[in-house]
Design a protein that fits this description.
two-stranded antiparallel sheet, 2 domains, Jelly Rolls, 12 helices, globular, 22% strand, alpha+beta, Arc Repressor Mutant, subunit A, six-stranded antiparallel sheet
């Protein structure tokens, strides 16, 4: 059995947080595998009851995730999640750069991995986890989350620097990194340092993953040819898109979509 609850954050938080997503799994003796593909926004995830399990690619071992995990931006399909038992998980999904704007913490050291939350955010997030675990109402949990993030919000408005990245994130006019860097008045090196600090990824990687996510969302939302998806996502051709899918999703487009179900976090 699976139950999903979603909510938007308080309006003051919407420039930084995309959504709250709570998933309750009652797997019995079954288990499910969820792929983790490339994504830009960071996440903060709270676990209640049984944890997710993360298999190692170097051996046959599996490791449970932490009760509170900060999940950085991901530039390739490196891991997958195994869901078994009774799992209750609540994910805070940030917009790109939203985590940095919220806490003022550089994103680059957190990229490509999940990091135990207490070590990143301190005892406040552990206390929040306890408060969330003491109630069962999703609405009450949303209230706690909104109060916590409004209290910790470092930058209420998106900095001009972050706004300048929109042509790359939205693939407008096939903007190049050099063009966007010139518009900010920064050198290429300064621009890359700021990108790593705020987004956790280089400008080129940001642009590539943004285009991949657009193609993935187009493929998930409509029945159309992959040639049309490639065109609408601003790929040069279909083979260019297929190469990105192999890097970012672990396989060609049709195979990648077949592994993604409606409740997977990549959908939100």
């Amino acid at each position: 059995m699976l139950r999903i609850d979603t909510a938007l954050p308080h309006p003051e938080l919407t420039p930084h947080i995309r959504a709250y997503v709570q998933r309750d799994f009652r797997m019995g003796r079954e288990e499910a595998i969820e792929p983790v593909v490339a994504r830009l926004g960071m996440m903060l995830e709270f676990q209640f009851r049984d944890p997710y399990w993360i298999p190692s690619f170097s051996d046959d071992s599996e490791n449970p995730c932490s009760p509170v995990t900060v999940i950085g931006p991901i530039s390739s399909r490196r891991v997958r999640l195994i869901v078994r038992g009774n799992v209750g998980a609540l994910a805070v999904i940030f917009h790109p750069a939203g985590f940095h704007q919220m806490f003022g913490i550089p994103a680059a050291p957190l990229a490509e991995r999940g990091t135990e939350g207490h070590g990143v955010l301190g005892p406040d997030v552990s206390q929040l986890h306890e408060r969330l675990g003491n109630v069962t109402s999703f609405a009450r949990r949303v209230e706690f989350l909104n109060a916590f993030f409004r209290e910790h919000l470092k930058q209420k408005d998106r900095p001009v620097f972050v706004q300048s990245f929109q042509p790359l994130l939205k693939n407008r006019y096939r903007a190049t990194v050099a063009q966007v860097a010139r518009q900010t008045g920064m050198s290429a090196r300064q621009f890359e340092r700021k990108s790593l600090e705020y987004f956790g990824l280089s400008p080129i990687m940001l642009s590539r993953i943004a285009r991949f996510q657009r193609a993935l969302n187009l493929g998930l939302s409509q029945e159309t040819s992959w040639l049309k998806v490639a065109h609408e996502a601003d790929y040069y051709d279909q083979m260019h898109m297929i190469r990105d899918f192999r890097v970012f999703a672990g396989g060609p487009p049709t195979k990648a979509l077949a592994s993604i179900e409606s409740h997977h976090l990549i959908r939100f």
